[in-house]
Design a protein that fits this description.
By secondary structure, the chain is mostly helical. The chain has eleven helices and no strands.
Length: 266
């Protein structure tokens, strides 16, 4: 009862997986936007490759950015949207009268987020090969480090958004979609951080994703894996994810103390 139960986490993650498997619309939706983004940026890349020395040297620079960005975006939604579904169904109170602990809910949300991210981005990655002859796995072993750091950052943002909605109600739900795009200009997805105004660069460097995308450019342009970028991103993610977990647990405690779990929902 006091320890974390892998069985309870697995059962909850399996429940989310069943919900996903029973709805082909949900599965299509997972892959739809990453695929549309990949197709759009693929054509842009093809056009610019003949007009840009940088893109000519590193084919797939933009496509890599698009696909890696979707890992961050999908992992965040994989946590927050699944949590919102519990709120919409008014199921949160039932979950917490069971032996399920809040930390186990967090781990289950992370598990289903990983699956949703692999499915959603995986389709786009697979289609990029026949469409443009581009293989994201050509990034080599550093891709695993990029994926890990983007996944962790997405989970941290997703948990913070879920905590905000739990604390302030469904009126804050739109933040789930807006939060990640507010950070996008600072992450240097399509351009180096040095392109940003000097006063914005310190803000960019405290985002793990900025180190990931700089590391991606180092691999594609210089054929070098920057361990410092990887470690900085990992360190930042450890701090942000720890903070997000604590904020989420505090929001659950507050909701329990004020009896708002039963009122959560539309």
């Amino acid at each position: 009862m006091n320890g974390i139960s892998p069985q309870r986490i697995g059962a909850l993650a399996l429940r989310y997986l069943y919900l996903l498997r029973r709805s082909w619309i949900r599965i299509v939706e997972l892959a739809y936007w990453p695929t549309v983004q990949m197709i759009l940026w693929g054509f842009i890349t093809r056009y610019l490759a003949g007009h840009s020395d940088v893109l000519g040297q590193a084919a797939g620079l933009l496509l890599s950015g698009v696909l890696l960005w979707d890992i961050l975006f999908r992992s965040q939604l994989g946590v927050s949207v699944v949590f919102f579904e519990e709120l919409h169904a008014r199921n949160l109170a039932q979950l917490f009268v069971s032996p399920l602990r809040p930390i186990e809910l967090i781990l289950a949300l992370m598990s289903i987020s990983l699956i949703r991210t692999l499915v959603g981005v995986g389709v786009a990655v697979a289609l990029a090969l026949p469409f443009y002859g581009y293989n994201l796995f050509a990034l080599g072993p550093p891709l695993a480090g990029f994926f890990l750091n983007l996944l962790l950052m997405g989970w941290a943002i997703g948990l913070l958004v879920a905590a905000l909605v739990l604390r302030h109600g469904m009126g804050a739900e739109s933040i789930a979609w807006a939060a990640i795009f507010a950070l996008a200009p600072l992450c240097g997805i399509y351009y180096p951080i040095a392109t940003l105004p000097g006063w914005l660069q310190p803000l960019a460097w405290i985002l793990p994703a900025s180190h990931v995308f700089e590391g991606m450019r180092a691999v594609l342009l210089d054929h070098a894996f920057r361990l410092d970028y990887f470690l900085y991103a990992l360190l930042l993610n450890a701090g942000y994810l720890g903070l997000a977990i604590n904020v989420f647990l505090a929001a659950v405690r507050h909701a329990r103390e004020h009896g708002s779990l039963l009122q959560s929902g539309e």
